[in-house]
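Hello forum,

I keep getting stuck at the same step: I have a sequence, I want structure tokens, and every attempt I make locally crashes halfway through. Rather than fight my setup again tonight, could one of you with a working pipeline run this one for me? It's a single chain of 815 residues.
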Amino acid sequence: MLFPAFTFLFLTLSTCSAVNTISVNQNITDGDTIISKNQKFELGFFSPGISKNRYLGIWFKNTSPLTVVWVANRKTPLNNTLAKITLSSRGTLSIVNIRGSIIWSSNSLAPRTNANPIAQLLNTGNLVIKIRNSVVWQSFDYPGDTFISGMKLGKNLVTGKEFYLRSWASADDPFPGKYTVRLFKVKGKYPQVYISKGSVIVSRMGPFDGIEFAGHPKSRHDSNNLYQNEMVVNHKEMYYKYRSNSTVLAARTVMTPGGKLEIWQLNMRNQEWMQDLTIPMDYCDNYGLCGPYGSCSTNTLSNCECMKGFEIKDVGYDLNPYNWSNGCRRSRELDCGPGDGFLKFSSMKLPDTQNAVFDGSMSIHECEVACKDNCSCTAYANPNVTRGSVGCLRWFGDLIDVRVYSINGQDLYVKLAASELLGNSIAKFGFNKKFGVLTVVLLTSSAAGLLFAVLSACRTKMKRRHLLGNQYALNKKHATVQIQDLDELPSFSLHEIAKATDNFSINNKIGEGGFGPVYKGVLENEQEVAVKRLSETSQQGLDEFKNEVICIAKLQHRNLVKLLGYCVHENEMILVYEYMPNKSLDTYLFDETRSSMLDWPKRFHIINGMARGILYLHQDSRLQIVHRDLKAGNILLDNDMNPKITDFGLARNFVGSDTATKTKRVMGTYGYISPEYALHGQFSTKSDVFSFGVLVLEIISGKKNRGFSHEDHSDSLIGHAWRLYKENRSIELMCPSLRESCVMSEVLRSIHVGLLCVQHHAQDRPTMFSVVLMLVSEGVLPQPKQPAFFTGEIPSEVQSGSSVNDYTITQVYAR
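Reply #2:
Ran it on my machine without issues. Output:
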């Protein structure tokens, strides 16, 4: 790991054995490319992707594909197979090509020529040059496209040196690309992170709230103290960095050539990367999308709308509902008098702070007074949640890049004219009686006019339906389905689908579920697809069809089946998915012959993949989703046996991971639905956690929970697993075919996690984020409590009127 002075390293740049340390005057033999390595990282030469150029870089050890975190000569690649590295007596590290030309240098000069420097690759991934244990140069000061633990993102305000990420030109070329991510701050401003393409801002993260960058769900990944975030702002420097407290997980943030900021975590036990977050995360993460005073929300049809107290500027809006570039303007101008006040907007992404001023010593009340007294002040907020009511951020001018968050948002107080403030606000700001009466009259008149317009529109619509006949009212399946907000999702014609499936030939039928039959098809571009066609006898219909299309169209994850498009034609409703050649998990798991194809590594891989997919649905996706029908039949397997969750017909958008919602329609599959959902219609993310726990026990045992039988007792599979756990015999739950391939610690840990997930009370079950961490870590797990559905009996409340087998059920009951 050391490079003494005057050592020349002649390297033939090809795959070869590693050199751990380098002694004084020692030459590396031809063929060596790995120069130094430690427990986590390696330093050496590599060729990215299909490129034949060679670069000196640092990468994570033993990962596939090669995960590079730093490149020295990203602007000046080597185009031959021979090079040498030198470390001068004054501490300058250089790459010299075969012709003797220096193609890259650290440009670090010690004050004396006999300083005896050394170069060392640290366990943090930082390449340092030291003189008497003092660092004179480090690679962390020259980041590329990747940000890892211990690095800084920010600026030295004394020297002006900036630490920022710049993307590669392409996956095969480390040359500096178009996209950068910077922590930006000028005097008196509040720091924030921008993603830019050249000089144009593409996306902006919510401001640092003292714990994290506000708004993005996965940024609270340190809830188990895995990472420690730090933001430092003083007169000398301002920077953000994080440090890892985990010996099992490592993280990296990379600025991709396509302009995405991606956060990944590495499970160092199996060297597998898990993607946590991508920014821009959704449509509303695009910078300034809705213009001044426009607010973006993924829960509204057009995404953009004017904040309350403002109206659309563009007179052509009715002709082009997606043109929000001009944003909004005040409905009523400010009076700059004592009547002006503030309207609170909750769960918001605070506006761009380029035109804001921050005062860390001012209380939130003082902040309100200061903003009210200044006619140019348009809004205020307290951006730092860790400092209580201390901290004042005031905006002067337009509010840009505002959006609504489902979680982790902040409160924003926007100044409005007196006449915009209603109810208590009128009394609060002391309007005179005549003005109050006039306002009420005007509002009442406006409301009456609006009501008349709505009634007229409804009457016109009813007439139009009457003219179309009674078919619409009698059978909604025969109505023309209007699918909106799906600009990125292709629609297929019925002719294309029929041609792809040989007119829905029985020979192409590959399965059937609650929605209807599923066919294999081949599109004109020779892409294989799975075509799901709504059956006439299906218990599901228009609502489930639209629900699945709208939900899954907004979801993108490696462990979710990708929806390629849809078809609506008269009474035909069809969904087109990517084709999964290995079909569903249950075709292997519960088949005596095929189950032997699933050894323990494959099963453990499936368990971890399902967990990450469900975590994405619950926490990281555009829409917070509760699936409500997780079962072995809804886990599909691709060519590499990677699990992919499918069937979102029963999924529900959800806000708040622990708050239960009630429904009169219990929908799901017996054996997988949680007790609070089956008996009382209460569902939450913890309902999916229960289903996941059942799946884990089924995967380990190879037995179905529903219909499980044992010669010694009448327990369900869950009850049998609990009985074995209490008797310290959990390993007996494992399918006998796994004895040769199993890793005992992983099997026992998975059973333990499965039992934690199926506990009777929802509040006792872990979140999916905790589940993912528990599966890959080695720490002590909490003790599970007695699970739900301990015996094989199904409560009578659930049994009545329900269907059997593993088909999705819909049960409507009185409450």
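The mean pLDDT is 79. If your local run keeps crashing, start a new thread with the error log.
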